[in-house]
Write a structure and sequence with these properties.
The chain has 262 residues and is mainly α. Helix content is 77%, strand content 0%. The chain contains 11 helices and no strands. The longest helix is centred in the middle third of the chain and has 49 residues. The C terminus is likely disordered.
Length: 262
């Protein structure tokens, strides 16, 4: 129960867990950065390149439930299928993936906390994980599903606030037309290298396409070597694995559109 939540988690919680897991420092910071550098193609390719892995992972999740219904981790399955040598190789890959992802989450989250509260970044790096460790220690993976649900609701609320502020209530912007006009003027003053006519509003972006290839290749490693995604599949009810991952993966596309005004 501690590591599998009874294997009965339904699609709504699975989807919220996927969204929460995939909304990390890069989602909010990198998507804004590529929007600033490449225009509208940047966040579009960022989101598109990060949905493919989740959709394909749904297939692996189904096969995992079908072929190894009593597994606890994907490394357990690797050892049973391919032996100890391959098992050790995947342990190394999984460990490196989690170290890199954790480091990025902590540094990105700490930078945000520092900007909001003034807490030293180094101190925030040590303080932020304490709450996660405590609720996971006492509640197991079920606690992570519940907190993921809260995270997803918070993300939606913040996105709605940002969207309405930008496109309806802002004194600087306040409407989609105003945003378009300002971006058009910005492309004339500071044309984007590699974009058609230097525009921020075109999908014909050479650098954006290159970023898409890098993004889609790199994100395969962060999904397929992260035991967290497998644990969510293991904990899910077999009927709810596919809809949960599909809903969680599709939610990623519109989210980054709100980063354009940055």
């Amino acid at each position: 129960m501690f590591s599998t939540a009874g294997r009965t988690v339904r699609s709504g919680l699975v989807a919220s867990a996927v969204v929460s897991s995939w909304t990390w420092a890069a989602t909010l910071l990198q998507s804004s950065g590529v929007a600033y550098r490449y225009g509208v193609s940047g966040p579009f390719w960022y989101a598109s390149g990060a949905t493919v892995q989740i959709i394909l992972f749904a297939t692996i999740a189904i096969e995992l439930k079908r072929r190894a219904p009593n597994a606890h981790t994907f490394l357990e399955v690797i050892r049973a299928r391919y032996g100890s040598v391959t098992h050790i190789v995947y342990i190394v890959f999984g460990l490196m993936t989690n170290i890199l992802v954790t480091a990025m989450l902590l540094t990105g989250g700490s930078a945000v906390v520092t900007s909001l509260t003034g807490v030293p970044t180094a101190a925030a790096c040590f303080l932020l994980p304490i709450g996660v460790v405590l609720y996971t220690l006492f509640g197991g993976i079920k606690a992570t599903f519940l907190t993921d649900y809260v995270h997803t609701c918070t993300i939606l609320i913040i996105l709605l606030i940002f969207a309405f502020t930008t496109y309806a209530a802002s004194s600087v912007l306040g409407s989609p037309g105003k945003v378009y006009d300002l971006l058009f003027a910005a492309s004339k003053a500071h044309p984007v290298y590699g974009n058609a006519e230097g525009s921020y509003l075109t999908m014909r972006s050479k650098e954006g396409a290159v970023f898409f290839v890098i993004n889609i290749v790199g994100n395969f490693g962060t999904v397929f070597c992260d035991n967290g995604y497998y644990n969510k599949a293991i904990a899910a009810n077999p009927v709810h694995v596919l809809p949960g991952y599909i809903m969680g993966g599709r939610f990623r596309v519109p989210r980054n559109g709100e980063e354009l005004h940055c």
